[in-house]
User: What shape does this take?
Amino acid sequence: MFEHFDATMLARVQFAFTVSFHIIFPAFSIGLASYLAVLEGLHLWTRKQIYIELFDFWKTIFAIAFAMGVVSGIVMSYQFGTNWSVFSDKAGPVIGPLMGYEVLSAFFLEAGFLGVMLFGRKRVGPGLHFFATLMVALGTLMSAVWILAVNSWMQTPAGFAMNDQGQFVPADWWAVIFNPSFPYRFTHMVLAAYLTTALVVGGVGAWHLLRRTAPLRAGTMFSMAMGMISAVAPLQILAGDAHGLNTLEHQPAKVMAMEGHFESHPNGAPLILFGLPDQENQRMHYALEIPKASSLILKHDLNAPLAGLDTIPREKQPPVAVVFWSFRVMVVLGFAMLALGLFSLYCRWKGSLYQNAWLHRFACVMGPAGFVAVLAGWITTEVGRQPYTVYGHLLTADSISPISAPAVAASLIAFIIVYFLVFGAGTFYILRLMGRLPRDPDTHLSGGPIRSAGITPAPALTEDHTRHGGAHHGA
Assistant: This one.
């Protein structure tokens, strides 16, 4: 039934499917590892028990997310050999060592200290345990360094030469790693990871504030998350703008697709807010645009000329509709995060950060927004690179393994079934854990003071005391 499908397209769909599942877990674990380090550092500094209680709550969630990220990453990497063997052969001398360094440094660092972080606080002492938490956080960041170095090199290849077999071979490792887009891509991704985690933590805190189940714990995590969002969201917008300018320099066709510019504009290009891209006829239908605003953003000059896709051969153009809409999803969510941060600052200033139900509802709705924005950003990046795997040098059509469409389709169907079962169950369990924030130890029962023997006021009881001995006091 799949004989008439294109093997290259099916292989691309399979890789997109697996990487979409994979990327959300590292994006979460990078930020959550740093958050755990902050919580433990605050506990050592202030000796307040609440920070270590929040640490214990989130470390279980981190362990599950980390495990699912490792499993999904291993499965994804096998596709380099099964579906993209030509790409692996040609680009392997460059990307192989980088991915090996990621395993030897970052993954070994994470795995080596993860057990100590999860189970060793009462065995190794507070100082060494904090060091282990810092090493896990550092390992997640180092992992991002190597993986983004690989991806950035595929986007803006540098520091290589071609040998007699047509392979990319490293000529300058510094240029390979610190290629033109790496600093922008790394900054943008790490900030995205911190925002993603802050939105999840803030959403969980807001949920429990609305339910009033653990106001002290929920309020502490909510305040920390809103502070992070307020600080990082503006930085992310600035980093995204700088990344866009870098992309315009090195991958102009991608920016043309992001902007929806089918035609060149010699006297200033409009900013198309929304429209319906028609790549077949090279037109944008029903465009809602701001005159010359795109030139102002990209060139800082209202009248600066901007080239369009009419300067790019049809076969070298990326799929415009996908890139155009995924970019807008990412941008809209970015400004929604900024709005949440500003709203929280206003409520903090007014003294209603823990009482404003509308802020809490907004934070709950925005809880998964970071994952959606990360996926939209990766779609923009990877689809916008087409039709190349190594931009400007190796076409996707020339990177595929000599396999048939039915073989790729069979494995794709198997991945879809297994992924939704396994990772669906894992995600469901994480959500269950998030919904079970332990009550504050000083949460009192409502209904006034409890009297013993009907005469003497008894001390206020915690829920735990009531659960175990309330019947006796009531008697």
In short: DSSP finds 15 helices and eight strands in the chain. The radius of gyration is 26 Å. The first strand starts at residue 160 and ends at 162.
